[in-house]
Amino acid sequence: MPHAVVVVDVNDDNKPDIVVANHKSNTTGVLLNIGNGTFFPQVSYSVGKFPASVAVADINSDNKSDIVTADWNSNTLSVLLNIGNGTFSSRTNYPVGVMPRSGTLVDLNSDNQPDIVVANQGAVFISVLLNIGNGTFSTQTSYVVGSATYAVAVADMNGDNKPDIVTAHGASNIISVLLNKGNSTFSLTGYVVGVAPMSVTVGDLNNDNKPDIVSASSASNTVSVLLNTGNGTFPLQVTYLVGAFPYAVAVADINSDNKPDIVTANMNANTVSVLLNKGNGTFFPQTIYAVGGVPQSVAIADVNSDNKPDIITANSGSHTISVLLQC
């Protein structure tokens, strides 16, 4: 039951591989890229209970991509270090908040080592675990953000060269922006989006060199776009219709026009929606593509080396990965 997917080269052959979080089997699966957009069968590694998300980065500075899962039912993170050729060590677990739903890897304290930020669905706080330097992490530090935190993203939202945190709150229809004050403290502002936001991402949608926010609101079948005013504040949302129950959202330039587009995984429609960017941070109506059953995650990467981004979904209902190669 794949619940989340990322696409990244884990065996250093310059071909992006697929890494999934398998919710019911308590594993992460690695599917190595054969080279033409097809993949070897997955190799599975044990993680905590019900992994809900997966992230990949070099966390121990050995130039190999490591794996971190957020384990929803054991209230832990699992860290698996890459031991070479796309194989991984046994997991090390770290406690976090209740029902960790999403995690991301980013350098929060400017020491050139990726730290972990976790959205805890069953707690009112996010967890931050700082990288100690050898692939191990500190005990979590908690920051109150609000209840039902389903997703987290990190970017410098106000141009002060400090990474800020963005969270999605499924029960309150709010996106929270936590601006980094530089001394391990954050100031929080909430913004209204659609109903039940399950996913959030950031990207410069209107080419003004400021990261904007996109959230997927599952109960209103919309994405919300919040354009950055320049100081880390955001005006009212603009919404766009997508498929039924969008559970995940990604931003990437799909049609090679140097403008980032929006892609959602629509859980109740078994589809993805692609919204092409008009060029000023507004978007054309969706184009819909069929994928496997109950897609809950989406990633974008060129998996067949043709210089065109492809779409990959994790389909929990059909226990499959869908790969849509761009024509």
TrEMBL record:
The keyword Lipid metabolism does not apply. It comes from Adineta steineri. Gene3D superfamilies: 2.30.30.100. It holds the Pfam family FG-GAP_3. Signal peptide: none annotated. InterPro entries: FG-GAP, Integrin_alpha_N. It comes from the Eukaryota. Keywords: Signal. This is VCBS repeat-containing protein.
